[in-house]
Records
---
Amino acid sequence: GQNIDQPTEMTATEGAIVQINCTYQTSGFNGLFWYQQHAGEAPTFLSYNVLDGLEEKGRFSSFLSRSKGYSYLLLKELQMKDSASYLCAVRDSNYQLIWGAGTKLIIKP
Amino acid sequence: GAVVSQHPSRVICKSGTSVKIECRSLDFQATTMFWYRQFPKQSLMLMATSNEGSKATYEQGVEKDKFLINHASLTLSTLTVTSAHPEDSSFYICSARDGRADYEQYFGPGTRLTVT
């Protein structure tokens, strides 16, 4: 079967750095996505990785290792507004997005 | 950037009635649109994928006669929840894929459906 694993909840301090991990087992791989979702709102796109390595975009970076079936989202200089759920999704061989359950990130002052 | 709108944002209906939700891509042509459902504190669940001008492809366990999807144009898809029941109460989100930008899906703001 297809499976995406990420921690259910994480807590971090304002101004700090947090890394949210995602491991996946899918039938084929055509890219990995990270989305941010605030409570009661739709997801918003953060990043896309299809090749191994680190993609940096401002305070957010995303890393991919296809051989390990592993990705992480790194958030630096955390702000209170970063409190949200972070969804990892993998596009499989049929170009379907397989979604993780999301990681709820709680930022404390 | 690409914008997807949904209407209505919130709807309350009585059990047994039908509700139509519209999803529009405002500044691009969406060759493919997706409909998701999300229950509280759970992840997105893909309900169906629709391509313009053809029948939607439903995920396993989703009743196609209950959740009617129409993708009549490159900018509009509709989801009709027929004979709604309280267990259909959920957050329904559509997303659209721009034919020119293969990898990204743009999400609508979602529709909160409450069936009483």
---
Amino acid sequence: QKEVEQNSGPLSVPEGAIASLNCTYSDRGSQSFFWYRQYSGKSPELIMSIYSNGDKEDGRFTAQLNKASQYVSLLIRDSQPSDSATYLCAVNTGGFKTIFGAGTRLFVKA
Amino acid sequence: SAVISQKPSRDICQRGTSLTIQCQVDSQVTMMFWYRQQPGQSLTLIATANQGSEATYESGFVIDKFPISRPNLTFSTLTVSNMSPEDSSIYLCSVEAGEETQYFGPGTRLLVL
């Protein structure tokens, strides 16, 4: 059974701090990794994709991938109350099959 | 990215009835997907719909319960048949938009009484 694991949280950080969200996956052959943000009552919104080991930065967001450790993370710098949401880690395990983690709830306190 | 719409956005249905959910995309896409998301849970893939062929269902989902149509490259429907309260959920369609990236529609919130 291919799995994607996330800490459900909630993760609470003060405004302006760095939020660190983590994800591990079981399928060593996975090649594509994604972070989605989901506000309450809304559908998931893609915020980052990463395909190779290392860091990928986009504005306040940095995705980190370590395939040897089967680990993906998302860093949110200068966290804002508007970043409060559930963050879903998703892993493509081949073809068009993508497995989603259960999500980590993030609260950014003003 | 793709712009995706779903109809209806929400519905309340009686047990034993069926509901058809429509998903429309603003561009031609090869792969469309149907997911279910129950309250507080993550996304569960129901099936993958490729235009011109039968949908591929995930373990635990069957065509008789969740028939899917994919008549062209911009449209798909999912029917939830013979509904029970356990079918109450959010149903989401998504499309593959290159590099295995998926974009989601706004979802259909279904409550079965």
